[in-house]
């Protein structure tokens, strides 16, 4: 018998499977909750043992970040409901930003929605900065959308402290030089990734999407970027972020809000209102997770 995926709970099966990433698997629990857990195989091949060990480490690292976020949540960061031995129980979302952008040629994204996404994403990254964290793998595949089409940032297994070495280098979102070396984690690395996300939101595709990965990577390493002149609102922000001109993500957030005619104080009031709504729903979701763990093991 060959290796097969080990389910974190006996009640789960392949019918509950949603997706698989570098850090682990995601399973459907109910209409509001998913479980993200490390990859484990029964009767694993020797080469799969390393994958299992790495997956376990990445999920544990992500749990540590979510424990911080549970104390200081943000309405545009996926809510962690429970960190259990088996994995992380999270609010279920509708889709990824990557999936939505891939549909944009036939289902154009309204300008107002684009502007909201840029504001929400910048706010979420700035919040991580306040907590002393760098996401480290910011790209549309790691950005979810909820039922109301709001940004929900996720996937924190590559998050590190400022000044640390980046753990991943996903092209074309990660800043590299011509020697393929990355800067330390911090405002320079994070705003480069943010710039590529803003560009993708505004133009519907990655920078230099028409090139193959090698040619695209060469251009970005040489600081050769596609034109953003068609984006009168955020084009300058994108360009400045690519070149690392902002001293912090907080300063980018202020710039974005200013261009939208909003203030940090107004955003703070909206954030608090959204957090109150999240807090009101949390006890029910937490009880559902605890009951699942207690009865479905």
Task: Give a description of the structure.
By secondary structure, the chain is an alpha+beta fold. It folds into two domains: 4-92 and 275-296, Phosphorylase Kinase, domain 1 (2-Layer Sandwich); 95-262, Transferase(Phosphotransferase), domain 1 (Orthogonal Bundle). 44% of the residues lie in helices and 12% in strands. The protein has helices spanning 46-71, 97-102, 111-130, 187-203, 213-221, 235-242, 249-259, 264-296; strands at 4-5, 17-20, 25-30, 33-37, 41-42, 80-83, 88-91, 95-96, 143-145, 151-153. The strands form three sheets. A five-stranded antiparallel beta sheet has the order 2-3-4-7-6, sandwiched between helices. A three-stranded antiparallel beta sheet has the order 8-9-10. A hairpin with a 5-residue loop joins strand 9 and strand 10 (151-153). Helix 3 packs antiparallel against helix 4 (187-203), helix 3 packs antiparallel against helix 7 (249-259) and helix 4 (187-203) runs antiparallel to helix 6 (235-242). The chain is globular and about 55 Å long. The two termini are 25 Å apart.
Low-confidence stretches: none
CATH topology of the largest domain: Transferase(Phosphotransferase), domain 1
Shape: globular
Task: Report strand order across the widest sheet.
Answer: 2-3-4-7-6
> Percent helix among the residues?
40-55%
Radius of gyration over all CA atoms, rounded? 20 Å
What structural category arises from helix and sheet content? alpha+beta
Subunit structure: Component of the EKC/KEOPS complex composed of at least BUD32, CGI121, GON7, KAE1 and PCC1; the whole complex dimerizes.
EC number: 2.7.11.1
InterPro entries: Kinase-like_dom_sf (IPR011009), Prot_kinase_dom (IPR000719), Ser/Thr_Kinases-Pseudokinases (IPR051681), Tyr_kinase_AS (IPR008266)
Keywords: Kinase, Transferase
């Amino acid at each position: 018998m060959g290796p097969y995926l080990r389910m974190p709970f006996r009640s789960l099966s392949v019918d509950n499977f949603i997706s698989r990433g570098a850090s682990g698997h995601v399973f459907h629990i109910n209409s509001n909750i998913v479980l993200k857990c490390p990859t484990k195989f029964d009767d694993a091949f020797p080469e799969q043992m390393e994958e299992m060990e790495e997956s376990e480490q990445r999920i544990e690292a992500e749990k540590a970040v979510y424990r911080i976020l549970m104390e200081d949540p943000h309405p545009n960061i996926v809510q962690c409901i429970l960190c259990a031995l088996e994995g992380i129980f999270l609010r279920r979302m509708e889709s990824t930003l990557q999936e939505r952008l891939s549909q944009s040629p036939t289902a154009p994204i309204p300008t107002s929605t684009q502007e909201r996404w840029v504001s929400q994403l910048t706010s979420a990254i700035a919040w991580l900065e306040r907590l002393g964290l760098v996401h480290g793998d910011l790209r549309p595949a790691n950005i979810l959308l909820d039922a109301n089409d709001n940004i929900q940032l996720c996937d924190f297994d590559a998050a590190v402290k400022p000044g640390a070495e980046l753990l991943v280098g996903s092209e074309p979102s990660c800043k590299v030089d011509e020697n393929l070396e990355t800067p330390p984690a911090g405002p320079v690395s994070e705003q480069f990734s943010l710039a590529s996300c803003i560009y993708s939101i505004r133009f519907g595709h990655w920078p230099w999407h028409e090139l193959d990965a090698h040619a695209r990577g060469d251009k970005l390493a040489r600081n050769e970027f596609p034109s953003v002149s068609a984006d009168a609102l955020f084009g300058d922000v994108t360009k400045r972020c690519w070149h690392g001109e902002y001293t912090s993500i907080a300063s980018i957030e202020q710039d974005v809000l200013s261009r939208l005619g909003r203030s940090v104080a107004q955003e703070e009031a909206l954030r608090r209102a959204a957090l109150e709504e999240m807090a009101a729903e949390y006890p029910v979701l937490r009880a559902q997770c605890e009951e699942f763990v207690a009865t479905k093991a």
